[in-house]
Amino acid sequence: xxxxxxxxxxxxxxxxxxxxxxxxxxxxxxxxxxxxxxxxxxxxxxxxxxxxxxxxxxxxxxxxxxxxxxxxxxxxxxxxxxxxxxxxxxxxxxxxxxxxxxxxxxxxxxxxxxxxxxxxxxxxxxxxxxxxxxxxxxxxxxxxxxxxxxxxxxxxxxxxxxxxxxxxxxxxxxxxxxxxxx
Length: 182
Hints:
The protein is mainly beta.
């Protein structure tokens, strides 16, 4: 969770906000507003507990602490993908390119999107191009990451490599043995 602002500009330390009001009159009150940005890991219930204390003798300690629970729901998204090869037939040892088109039909933005593509065995010199994020290849698996894919948007990831194939060295033709004619 990230604290975005607090109305009295109190100090923050992690998820704790603290400060001094410099006095509050008898029967007085003050409002304090805190804006936070919960991360995806905060999905579920966010419990906010506030407490107050003073240097005077407090006659009613139970009313010095209060809590409120807020339900944090992750956005909903309908992700889809289309995987296509640029051609259905390639020559052994030549380039092969796959295009993966990611879509989000909503209703909300998709956050922290990860594409995982298990590559065909033997594909070598693999590259991943992801203009909207990062891409990598490890142990025959191509991965691409996007921080956000908005509703109705698409993202295109290109995966390229060399198709498996034997490297053939030319061998000299077999010639019949030479005969000497005298």
